[in-house]
Request: fold
Amino acid sequence: QVQLVESGGGLVQAGGSLTLSCAASGRTFSNDAMGWFRQAPGEERKFVAGISGAGGRTRYADSVKGRFTISRDNAKNMMFLQMSSLKPEDTAVYYCAAGLTIALLTTRPFQWGQGTQVTVSS
Reply:
């Protein structure tokens, strides 16, 4: 079973940048699609970005296109989310997730991390 651990969350001002990291262990990392979800208070968890196992394909939620960039380093079993031009509405707990494909990741991730808080102040 894969284990996922997020890091890099924090408090940032609107317009600022932040990079989240996800460390994976327990499976052959490059076999799995990986992605990020977020959950704001009182809202359901939503897909943010996903990346294929080899890293050649990515998918983004419309709300973050052009501002967020997902990447992965399979040699280090790491995934990243570079966030820029942050807005107060980006405030949420961000979760790392693993899926068999990007498509399946968006609906049925098979593993979640514990989450990391991102707060964007206005």
Notes: The two ends are 40 Å apart (CA to CA). The chain has a mean pLDDT of 96. The first strand starts at residue 3 and ends at 7. Residues 102-107 form the longest helix (6 residues).
